[in-house]
Amino acid sequence: MTKEKSKFVYSIFWNCALITVGSLIQTLALKGIAIPHNFVPGGLFGVSSLIYYLADLLNPGLIYLLLNIPLFILGYIFISRRFLWYSALAMAQISIFYQLIQFEIHIESQLYAALTLGVMLGFGAGMVLRSLGSNGGLDVIAIILYQKYNIGIGKTYFGFNLILFSLSFISLDNDLVIASMIAVFVTSVTLDYTLSMFNQRKLAFIISEKSEAIADRVMTTLKIGTTLLPAIGAYRKEGRTVMMVVINNIQLKRLEEIVFTTDEHALFIVENTFSVLGSTFSKRKIY
Length: 287
What we know:
InterPro entries: DUF2179 (IPR019264), N-reg_PII/ATP_PRibTrfase_C (IPR015867), UPF0750_membrane (IPR051461), YitT (IPR003740). The protein is an alpha+beta fold.
């Protein structure tokens, strides 16, 4: 990552833009689909919605705002001031958008509504988490537990939502709770995809007797670095050199052409990576 790109990624403008667009998409999903269908979203907004459905107290936006206050104090203590302010911006925008926007997406099918809700929430939440902040709520708890005790963020979400939906089964219609669980599952899948699509790369291994020649052509033609790894074939016990290189999807076919025009007997292995950080790739995010 160049210094100019790194400076832009850490700029206030870029982070505020990500948070604003992501918060707006999430609010449209909540106000336009979740509330009209009485879905229980996962996380802290799910708790807010459950309280609203059962007690008819205030509204989910205000309840969400009140529940976030103690969590942001913890975020300030255990994470960073910058993380707190960006997360507070996301939380405030969701609460304000929720009060101002009068919007409903007319979807008759409960299943289609759950799927649409999951995609919109996952994409919106992913945009916010691409910034240096979070959506507030459960995100704050998950990040603290991950940094302090190395508990996976996914495990925190799973445990919290398991308790939330168990309580929902007691109080709400079973079909409604199941539809809400589908929405939460789709949200998590879309969220993971949104977070990884910017950093995802292809990891290629090339096993060849001409690995050094292939590496030279790759570095000259594609202008990317490669790594040569010593290896031994298990059958013949002969020494080989394995070339490892990280590329993007656009470079994949060009790499394949370079490999097989250099050595038609080469073994070409490609894997998907979830995230690639450091060196000339994306910079590690520091809150």
